[in-house]
Amino acid sequence: MIAGEVRPDRQAVIRLVVRGPESASRCVEAVVDTGFNSYLTLPSDLVAELGLQYLARGRARLADGSVITTRYFRAEVEWDGQARPIRVLEAAGGPLVGMSLLYGCDLRIAVIDGGEVTIALLAEPLSAR
User: Fold this and answer.
1) What's the rounded Cα separation, in Å, for the pair 83 and 76?
2) Which residues does 66 contact at the CB level (< 8 Å), separation at least 6?
3) Are the CB atoms for 68 and 115 separated by under 8 Å?
4) Which of 50, 65, 114, 115 matches a 20 to 30 Å C-alpha distance to 29?
């Protein structure tokens, strides 16, 4: 299970370890963003620090409807005790965890200051049914 908390600014935050190809790793605090349908965003300085492998340029639609051109990278996250390869979108701001990373999990948020955020793997992901 992955655990976090709701901050006074109403953000649900979890901590996760992100790794690059040369085993460089960093523990980051990431905001759970159910409106983001990809895996994870990281700022460019962290992408560089981890030496993430470049995949491609792409376009992404932001919450305000605007479209940006960005870069995608390969990384690995520690997810519920397991190494999981993912695609990272380079974006300004703090790290965001999106719905593709949450897929196959049960997300629960007690939406109060200091409320518990829990993410647990489902026994049988919906795609297997």
Assistant:
1) 6
2) none
3) no
4) 65
Both tokens assigned to 84? 């999981």
Tokens 């489902």, located at residue: 122
Q: With contact defined as beta carbons under 8 Å apart, do 83 and 75 qualify? A: no
Q: Record the pTM.
A: 0.89
Q: CA-CA distance, 91 to 88, in Å (whole number)?
A: 9
CATH number for 84: 2.40.70.10
Q: Where are the beta strands (DSSP E) in 1-129?
A: 2-6, 12-19, 25-32, 40-42, 53-61, 67-79, 82-90, 96-97, 105-109, 116-121
- The boundaries of the domain holding residue 58 are 2-128
In tens, the pLDDT along 7-17 reads 999 999 999 99
| pLDDT tens digits, 54-110 | 999 998 887 788 888 999 999 999 999 999 999 999 998 899 999 999 999 999 999
Residue 48 Rama label (left phi>0; alpha psi -120 to 50; beta): alpha
Distance of CA 125 to the CA centre of its chain: 19
